[in-house]
Each structure stands twice: as structure tokens, then as C-alpha cells.
């Protein structure tokens, strides 16, 4: 693959992200879940102003009712069964209906922390890139694995957004860091190995937290991340309308929002059909 060409492709993708952050006053959203995998809903949210989308394999498993899954927790258990070609088809459909300035980062089998062997080679990355992806959304939890992902993605002009988790998280979704100081160390190393955007998993327990607020531990970890790196930063997990303002106050650039939007879309669908069947 031509290195110069792919570097230009990746730079163009990153510019989309930076322009979205600026357009929305320093913080924007990465819309995922239903709005990342369904072309009609992706088009709708982009018409509303969304600039960043994330189709991913667990969300596609849920959208297709694969093996009867009906919630994201169950979908995560079988996400590896969604093929790369299925993801490429979904990405291609979304890319066909959204403007060129929309950034699409994609979660694929093999790109997360897997419990079963899942091949991920140049073939899969090329297929996703040619489908219209700008980036690769990864949740690797091992440094060597993450470096391999970065090398593969960059070879085909894809950005990489990778995540920092907590050792006590229910699911392993990133390189572990227990304290804010460890977050700083991990984030800096991620930036050094070429990660283009660095996120923090924030879906830990919110029990006992005042309505509209987020745990102090999450605030401290996010501020540590934001202050440690120059690349765009993300928060993923537990984000909803009630606490979005609290996340904004941390200075993080991008909020990854999936479940909250999914729930609103499902409720809207119920409200839309109810008048037709209740007389």
C-alpha cells in the first residue's frame, strides 16, 4: 500500500473529527448503536447535525437479533460471530447516504478484546476501508495487540480510536489504568505508539451519584486524560441527557453515545404506532 496516499487519507479523516469538535463548541458526540448501523437513522442524525458515527459488531448483532439477543450485554457475548463482510456491508450502506464530511469509525470482530480466536489481517482492514470507513474503533487491552491494530489501520489510511479501562470493569474494553496517574501514563504511551484518538471507559457504577452528575472518580480520570495528550479525547459508557453537562465540564472532546439514543429511538417508535392501534 502507498504510504503517502494513506497518510493523506488518515489526515483527512482526523480533520473531519477536529472540525466537528470546533463546530460544536469544543465537544461533540460519536453517535453509535442504532444510529451507527442503520442507514436511515444514520442519515437522520447527520441531518440533525451529528458529524461522527460508529457502526460496530455488537450493535449489528443486536440490530439483527442474532441468536435472539435483545440487549447489548447479550450481544457482547456473541459479537465475534458478526463477520467482517457483514460489517463492511453495513458501513457501505451508511456511507452511501451520509455526506462526505461525516467521520465513520468502525468496530469489527478481532478489534475488541476477544475470548475466542478471531482473525484480523490486512484483508479485513482493507475490506472495511474500501467500504467507506475513516477509522477503526478498537478495545484492545494488550499493548502488543494495540500496536498491531495501529500498524494495520494506518497501513490502509484508517485512524485508530483506542480506550483506557479500569481493572474492575465488568467487561474488558481497554488498556487498564486504576488511578488518574496511571491514566496519564497509559494515555501518553498510547499517543506515542500512534493512537489517533484516546478514550476513557466511563460506564462504571453511578449508584449514589446525584441526578445529572457523574462520580468524582470519573471526573478525575477524564481530566487526567484530557491533560495528558494532544490528540482528541473521548468518553464512552453511561452517558445520557441527564449527565451530559457534567461530562462536558471535564473538557473531554467527544461523547460516545449509544444506549441512551437507542432507548429514545425505541420509545419514539412505540409512541409513533400507539395512536394507530389504540382508539
TrEMBL record:
Organism of derivation: Salmonella enterica subsp. enterica serovar Agama
Superkingdom as given in the UniProt entry: Bacteria
Lineage, uppermost ranks: Bacteria, Pseudomonadati, Pseudomonadota, Gammaproteobacteria, Enterobacterales
Protein's name according to its UniProt entry: Histidine biosynthesis protein
InterPro entries, alphabetized: Aldolase_TIM (IPR013785), RibuloseP-bd_barrel (IPR011060)
